[in-house]
Amino acid sequence: ACVRNIALKLTSVYETSSQDLQWDVCVTLADNHGYSAGIIQFTTGTGSAQAVISKYETSLQKGTTVQQKSPFKSFDSVLSSLKDASEASGSPQGDISGLQGFCDAWKQASGTPEFRDAQLQVLDDLYWTPSQITARKYSLSLPISIGQIFDSTIQLGAQGTLSLIKSIPTPSGDETKWIGDFLDARRSKLIDMGGAY
Asked: Which molecular function term from Gene Ontology is one that the record holds (predicted)?
């Protein structure tokens, strides 16, 4: 839990310029991912923002108190279309037409514990858990290794991170040297992607 907490704070610095989790941040960046929002910049262009919203809306339906209304209902079909297009093409979708008011809805929802829980659940499902499966597969145990695999999984995806690991020699006892090789490979990969990171 301590390693996860510190890894998330470090990733938060890179994603939102603060180690305090920024639940309500919502911006458009020049990266063709549409809106980027929340604690690790879930995006409308990849479907990760839609995954958060889906978890949130499910939790509202299961609530035992007064039913809350989701501020995202008018965006559901547009977000689903963007997610489907991203999955079909293998590329993020930068189109934000039909999403006017999305950031206002995100900020409104971020004031609720249900929405913050949804962000953490999707973070675990899409990034933390897959990253830790990868770390265990390669017998990585240093907190810096665990944190880097997590951060890379957010930035490059689980498959992208796995491909990166396969491009360098398998760790063989000297994990400190291995993480240095991994960071060099990651830097080269990002430069090849255009250096935007």
From this structure: chitosanase activity
Half-sphere exposure of 193 (CA within 13 A, CB side): 12
Instruction: Report the Cα–Cα distance between both ends of the chain, in Å, rounded.
Output: 28
* Domain of residue 89, CATH code: 3.30.386.10
Q: Give tens-digit pLDDT for 82-106.
A: 999 999 998 889 999 999 999 999 9
Smallest CA-to-CA distance from 182 within 197, 13, 194, 153 is with 153
What's the number of domains the chain is made of?
1
Residue 26's DSSP bridge partners are 37
Note the pTM of the prediction, 2 decimals.
0.90
Counting as low any pLDDT under 70, the low residues of the chain are: 63-67, 195-197
Task: Print the domain residue range for 109.
Answer: 1-193
42 membership: H or E segment, kind and range: strand 42-43
